[in-house]
Specification:
With about 575 residues, this protein is an alpha/beta fold. Helix content is about 35%, strand content about 10%. The chain has 20 helices and 14 strands. The longest helix is centred in the middle third of the chain and has 20 residues.
């Protein structure tokens, strides 16, 4: 074992060591805990403002048990918590801020290894981005999904059924009493969304990357095996420190490729793209937007979970969870990739067994073929855009229609239910100014509701285009992450009502059917919107955030800084 990093704080017999040991002793720590044992930071994203992570104080205690049992010293620290259900204007605005806090907290303290407690959507990428920048031995313990929602004899899924129920309420198919009853039935235990939304996608991503113990992604938060996993992870991180098994040794280019292919097979969220790009950037790993299409678009959909299917994460766990999917994809994955438990992906999944083929399909009979995320190009998105074919209406994946343009989210809210809105079922709805800089923060509004008058006609899906994101729990023929965004004068900013737009997913094309000459004329008169008075972090964000095709991270955070502290203040 190499010299422990924490010894630079605690081994000194002079003033610095006195300070480090003495002040920690006010927490009741005895002399022998400073005898050279690994110091493990438990990064806790618990908050009552993040309901998905509301049980993390309990999980942290089980991690602590494991650390002590293995001969380490656990020291828990808080991190900015990002709760998708409550935080405004969008947690994506603060993902980079949380990652900076986590990075600096890890680097600036006497930690030899880190356990990341993650759950709600942005806490996972934020923690990984921050930890990757420092590159200590790191293991992830996610909080797990909620139990299945139960409403009047059927299962309902968080997020996915919110969109359905809210449309039903708008057109009078259900009453307010029904709606409120469903509200109480949907979220009935600790945990994050139990659909294959972004939280579940991130949990699967982390397991596919090898950064969590095998089988961790799908264990329900309410299941005692989740706490057992936390205990075992606490023990394992101490061993990882002794082995000097760092994050960069696991998070490699082959691991990224594995995650992309697995994400396609589970029907994962489009948010996976922007987060994995940002994580890779922190380690200077090569990863391009087109890699997601090249590696993932031809992969089969093996997991029958909402929003692409019928079941929920609890069912996925009982069916065998992610190890079953990984084992089935073994011929497409780098199965020799190392993982945090010391074994390879192949070794960890060798005995995985499928207990329910209605939930996890066999490779030769998938639920869909070629169902991974598609990357679109064209004059409307020269730097790319993303669509999730498995969650989109097949009939709309090759479509031409007349644009109905909303200049920003306020314009959309004002006009979408106007009975005089000039819109038809074959129209293409376009929403501007919801990109990283334009909003700012790139909110999950890309799956915006359809016009009420069309819902009343029975229309269930339309092509929607924006520079924003959508919730991983959402569905529809939704084109997202258009780059460059409209706020920067990307072609999306030039779209006008009545323009013809062509979407061709098989050809990977998104085209504004307007001549180059006309677009040039429009560009000459286009003016960027005046930036509202910004201060503090929002100002920093707008000035330094990169576009979606680069992961929407800050330009000054690409590449890690390592664990060295240049100067000591004692």
């Amino acid at each position: 074992m190499t010299e422990l990093r924490s010894r630079r704080w605690f081994a000194d017999e002079d003033k610095p060591g006195f300070v480090g040991r003495s002040w920690l002793k006010n927490q009741g720590l005895p002399d022998h805990v400073f005898d050279g044992r690994p110091v493990i930071g438990i990064c806790n994203t618990w908050s009552e403002l993040t309901p998905c992570n509301g049980h993390f104080r309990v999980l942290a205690e089980f991690v602590r048990r494991g650390v002590y049992e293995a001969g380490g010293l656990p020291l828990e620290f808080p991190a900015m918590s990002l709760g998708e259900s409550l935080m405004r204007p969008t947690t994506m605005l603060y993902r980079n801020l949380a990652s900076m806090e986590i990075e600096e907290t890890i680097r600036g303290n006497p930690l030899d290894g880190v356990v990341l407690l993650t759950g709600c959507d942005k806490t996972t990428p934020a923690c990984l981005m921050g930890a990757a920048s420092v590159d200590l031995p790191t293991i992830v313990v996610n909080g797990g999904p909620m139990l299945n929602g139960k409403f009047r004899g059927r299962d309902i899924g968080s997020g996915t059924d919110v969109w359905r129920l809210s449309d039903d309420l708008r057109v009078g198919r259900i009453s307010m009493e029904d709606y409120q009853d469903a509200e109480s039935c949907m979220s009935r235990s600790d945990g994050h969304c139990m659909t294959m939304g972004t939280a579940s996608t991130m949990a699967c991503m982390v397991e596919a990357l090898g950064l969590t113990l095998p089988g961790a992604a799908a264990i329900p938060a309410a299941d005692s095996r989740r706490r057992r996993l936390a205990h075992l992870s606490g023990g394992r991180i101490v061993e990882m420190v002794r082995e000097d098994l760092r994050m960069s040794q696991i998070l490699t280019r082959p691991a990224l490729e594995n995650a992309i292919r697995v994400n396609a097979a589970v029907g994962g969220s489009t948010n996976f793209v922007v987060h994995l790009l940002a994580i890779a950037g922190r380690l200077d790993l090569p990863l391009e937007l087109d890699d997601f299409d090249r590696l993932g678009s031809k992969m089969p959909l093996l997991v029958n979970l909402m929003p692409s299917g019928d079941y929920l994460m609890e069912d996925f766990f009982y069916a065998g969870g992610l190890p079953v999917v990984i084992r089935q994809l073994k011929d497409s994955l780098h199965m020799d990739a190392p993982t945090v438990n010391g074994g390879t992906l192949a070794e960890n999944t060798a005995n995985a067994e499928n207990f329910n083929r209605e939930v996890i399909a066999d490779l030769d009979e998938p639920f869909q073929r070629g169902a991974g995320l598609s990357i679109l190009r064209g004059n409307l998105c020269p730097d790319g855009a993303v669509i999730k074919p498995s969650a989109a209406s097949p009939a709309l994946q090759q479509h031409r229609g007349r644009a109905v343009v909303f200049e920003d989210i306020d314009d959309y809210h004002t006009r979408i239910d106007d009975p005089d809105l000039d819109v038809a079922p074959d129209s293409v709805l376009v929403l501007k100014q919801v990109g990283p800089r334009g909003f700012p923060g790139m909110p999950e509004v890309g799956n915006f509701n359809l016009p009420k008058k069309l819902l009343l006609q029975g229309v269930e899906d339309m092509v929607r285009i924006s520079d924003g994101r959508m919730s991983g729990t959402a569905f529809g023929a939704v084109v997202l992450h258009v780059a460059p965004e409209s706020a920067l004068g990307g072609a999306l900013a030039l779209v006008r009502n009545g323009d013809e737009i062509e979407l061709d997913v098989p050809a990977r094309r998104l085209q504004l059917l307007v001549s180059d000459e006309e677009l040039q004329r429009r560009r000459q008169v286009w003016q960027p919107r005046p930036v509202e008075s910004l201060r503090g972090y929002s100002k920093l964000y707008v000035e330094h955030v990169e576009q979606a095709d680069r992961g929407a991270d800050f330009d000054f955070l690409r590449g890690g800084s390592g664990a060295e502290v240049v100067h000591s203040g004692h």
